[in-house]
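Hi R.,

Here's the chain you asked about this morning:
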Amino acid sequence: MTLCVIPARGGSKRIPRKNIRPFLGRPMIAWSIAAAQEAGVFDRIVVSTDDPEIADCARAEGAEVPFMRASKLSDDTTPTVPVIADAIAQVSVPPDTPVCCLYATAPFVTAAALKDGLSLLNDEHARSVVSVTSFPFPIQRALSRDDDGRIAMVDPGLMQTRSQDLPERWHDAGQFYWASAGVWASGGGMFDTGAHGLVLPRHRVQDIDTEEDWQRAEFMMQALQAAEG
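And here is the predicted structure, written out as tokens:
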């Protein structure tokens, strides 16, 4: 079987109730559930939450909530890996089961990207697959800025290097991760040796942690919807 786990705790601080707040008229988590359903590669789509309202919303969108997450796995400091490992243990799948952790706040995720992630996991015998995108500007030319507003090159030796001569760098897109149930249960990181990156276009990646992020994401989605008809 193939399993999708969507972690969605209820205690978001910076954007209260972020996982079920309406995003362009739909609960935020509904976008991730819909993409997982459209992908057609999951035998089960399970939401891990500690919040009854999120659980009800997830069920209404067609996902399963077969258990309620323990409070010890639902605070601000709990990493993602133990939450997914707990969900795997709760639903009892074999160690070789492909498991996708899909974030509840990933409205730009596509069914095609989820399927491509599974293909990459299988075809390349990857330890894990991480959705990534490129930085829009060379990070080697980063600046520091002190409390008085003074700036300085982090690496002054690159001051005269042309941007096009610097190697491209990538970052976690914050949408989804694929790995076998056994890898998740081992407690290792998604970026350990053997991880592969699935490249997403920058216009489909937006971190949503502040109100400014949220507004920008809605503008981006409206533009995408207009462009796609």
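One quick note: The first strand starts at residue 3 and ends at 7.

Cheers,
M.
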